[in-house]
Amino acid sequence: MATRTVTITDNVSGKQVECPVHEGQYGAPVIDLKNLYKELGMFTFDIGYASTAACRSAITYLDGEEGVLLHRGYPIEQLAEKSNFLEVSYLLVHGELPTTRQFDEWSHAIKMHGMTHEHLSRFYQGYRYDAHPMSVLAGVCAAVASYYHSQTDIYNPEDRMMTARRVIAKMPNLVSKIYRHQSGLPFVYPDNAREYVENFMYMMFSWPSEPYVPNPVALRAMNLLLILHADHEQNASTSTVRLAGSAETNPFACVAAGVSTLWGKAHGGANEAVIDMLKEIKDPKNIQKFVDRAKDKNDHARLMGFGHRVYKNYDPRAKIIRAACHDLLDEMHVDQPMFEIAMELERIALNDDYFISRKLYPNVDFYSGLIYQALNIPTSMFTPMFALARSSGWIAQWMEMLSDGDFRIGRPRQLYVGAQKRDYVPVAARK
Ligand code: SDX
User: Fold this and answer.
1) Residue 151: its pLDDT value, please?
2) Residues 314, 362: contact at Cβ < 8 Å?
């Protein structure tokens, strides 16, 4: 079959460039523009990369129109119901679901890397007890890079796999220490007799003076949240990790860059912002007023947890979290008035033409904070939880990029709209 191409013509110069079109397994085909500048002397212009594919990837596929999310071909609904986070992290990194032996080996390897250098604990003392946890997490992730710098060859597949194990193994340790520091509690070493998510909750919530027995409902909810936040194709923080990695940066430093990007309210910070928004609304009678503010162009208020660059339908993760939230609050006999406000807010917004016409639906962050709250996780720790989960996706994407034959440093161009060339003016002559 003839190669599909797209021809771009400059109607001023008459120059043309014929660009090959590449088809993927699913989703929009892509126009290969590598000869555009050479042939036409032009760049593409796509603020926010809304129509730009920055890479090829086999890890995650999103269909924004249909609200579909696949990890290595497996629907998120099935992984959420049947898998666990450690198995999903294996799937993201290796590309296949593990056999029993492979999972046991993966689980053992992760456990063997769960400790951090004892000196790292001193980094936390440098932060105020009320420092924002994402600031701390970005700092300590960059600090971990210093322990694994000289001995990591990013071009060696075995070193990349070792790095993936280290990142996935150490994030629960790094995140739990933030909560312990914030709470004035002693740090807790991993207990390898416990499975991954239970070990994390043990490091977060155990008391030195009491045995720690996790609530199975909470354990199941935490596993679900981590699965749902594990990866999401080329979102802002993943794109940051890829761009930092393309400069051959230390992988833990790439993760630190991803943490910094995820912190933003427009991205992973939205889960914390949703709770702040629900607290501000406080009573269902205030909902319409807030919705009107979110629609008002002169008001910076946005409906946090609503809208998505890719999903122009319900975020499949939001559907799963909404149902889980309802069940969890019932099972844990938690009266969560904010859940009622959130559901009423969703109902009002989904019947309002402003949101309907813009295809704005609840995203993963709209309900996740309510579950974290029911698990007694402080609001400021919501985004570090997101980062813990997403670090498995970040490192899988980093590995994929480095093993891609077309790997090269990312360096976008620009449309220059600044001053024309001019000579230096001595200060005495300036007006
Ligand atoms: C995550 O990319 C990913 O995959 C991210 C993520 C992941 O797993 O990695 O899914 C996680 O980051 C989810 C998104 C969390 N953020 C929020 O919930 C913050 C609130 N939402 C938005 O700020 C916004 O919807 C974004 C940032 C999520 C998407 O922004 P876009 O794609 O740039 O959309 P846009 O700003 O161009 O909006 C289009 C229109 C605009 O109105 P008009 O100019 O057409 O009149 O919709 C409006 C926007 O003003 N709009 C909103 C809105 N979101 C968009 N209006 C009110 N409230 C909102 N939440």
Assistant:
1) 84
2) yes
